[in-house]
Amino acid sequence: MITLLERAKLFKGKTALVSNGKSYTYEQLLTSSKYIAANLLHGERDLNEARITFLVPPSFEYTTLQWGIWAAGGIAVPLCELHPLPSIQYVMEDTKADIVIAHNDFVDFLKPLEKTLGISVLPLETFLKENHAELPEVDSARRAMILYTSGTTSKPKGVVTSHANIEAQITTLVTAWEWQQDDYILNVLPMHHVHGIINVMSCALWCGACCEFLPIFDAHKVWEVIKSGRLTLFMAVPTIYFKLISYWDDASSDDRQLLSNAASKLRLMVSGSAALPVSVMEKWRSITHQTLLERYGMTEIGMGLSNSYLGERRPGHVGLPLPSVEIRLVDANNNPVGENEPGEFQFKGPSVFMEYWQNPEATQKAFTDDGWFITGDIGLLNNGLYKILGRDSVDIIKSGGYKISALEIEDALRKHEGIKDCAVVGLPDLEWGEVVSACLVTDLDILDTRKISEWLKGYLPPYKIPRNYILRKELPRNVLGKVTKNELKKMF
């Protein structure tokens, strides 16, 4: 039984989604999902975990298609609207999907795959037509979804979650963040990622709340929705908060007051998917009186750690384990480390994924012999709350015998009035192993990096101060706003 779909029956008359200017009830969502399931089955009794790929913008149609795939016993594989055709082809080949369902805007874009892969590109409208069929009983242990990792350190891997995994990922957040029926959230996030699918849309639909889609981010439109007073929650990545702050900075003093007052009325605002710079958190708090709740998660585990909904939200920290989540910090030999000692995060619990799709070797490497998922992320327990130091492969710089957190240096650099944003990497060096190197984003025509280094001595010890600098107008990022540090290294 798919509990998410079953729960929707409790809220039939309520508004579930607002999409493209229209409101849709839970009953409409369920009815349309059944039509899609019947059309997908096409006379068969069960899709039996067939992979159904789809390229559809965030919308009512996206949601009903995902639910229809689940109701028919299939595995939902959402594709990213911003990915080039070779990236889409990679997912199609990896999942061995026979069809891709496409919104009208993407049919022509995907058509070349019919020839190269011998698959069918089918328009979404085909599946929205009224149809009826007896739907299969779908056990919660079945595979439900494959989401692809961002591939920042290797080829993207297909992360397989079961219906039970998805339910655990949803319920832990519903409990921790006290979701209610009368909640209303705006979804500005891509829908091929756990942040948009689980944290925003699925949590809202689990508890009878309303989710409004804004398929293309626009700072003006987001602020207009905030000003409307209908939102109770908002979740975004740090770059979105940065853009909302820039919009606020450019507004008149009267408009600033209106925007600040409206934002202050929301009950919860969350930041995730990338490290939240302390400077952004502090600026957002100063203009909205909202302390952003930062949390930590991965495609493989959903959310694992969260600052407190009711208690302390400490800048630069990601709180404590969420309900039903087990965590440990270990050294290179999987031995537990003490407080304030860096270690690797490892997780256990019902929200942890099943496997990497058709990749038993990678799956085996991802878990310890006693069943802990190995994240590759380094952190420490600092005065009762966990702090992320960075990803071992890209954010931990090993220089002259020191393990240096790139995130710590970035936070220090952002305090400088001439630096809008920055990213720090380690570059190979024969003498030091790696040397600390910083890319600075600035609007200034000239920025004296020698003075930057001198200024940094007030915040960091000498071995953490960058030896190389480059200046750019923007940083290379993926669709979720994460800086692609391997691309950044090439810029040096």
From TrEMBL:
<protein>
    <submittedName>
        <fullName>AMP-binding protein</fullName>
    </submittedName>
</protein>
<dbReference type="InterPro" id="IPR000873">
    <property type="entry name" value="AMP-dep_synth/lig_dom"/>
</dbReference>
<dbReference type="Pfam" id="PF13193">
    <property type="entry name" value="AMP-binding_C"/>
</dbReference>
<dbReference type="InterPro" id="IPR045851">
    <property type="entry name" value="AMP-bd_C_sf"/>
</dbReference>
<comment type="similarity">
    <text>Belongs to the ATP-dependent AMP-binding enzyme family.</text>
</comment>
<feature type="domain" description="AMP-binding enzyme C-terminal">
    <location>
        <begin position="408"/>
        <end position="482"/>
    </location>
</feature>
<dbReference type="InterPro" id="IPR020845">
    <property type="entry name" value="AMP-binding_CS"/>
</dbReference>
<dbReference type="Pfam" id="PF00501">
    <property type="entry name" value="AMP-binding"/>
</dbReference>
<dbReference type="InterPro" id="IPR042099">
    <property type="entry name" value="ANL_N_sf"/>
</dbReference>
<dbReference type="InterPro" id="IPR025110">
    <property type="entry name" value="AMP-bd_C"/>
</dbReference>
<feature type="domain" description="AMP-dependent synthetase/ligase">
    <location>
        <begin position="6"/>
        <end position="357"/>
    </location>
</feature>
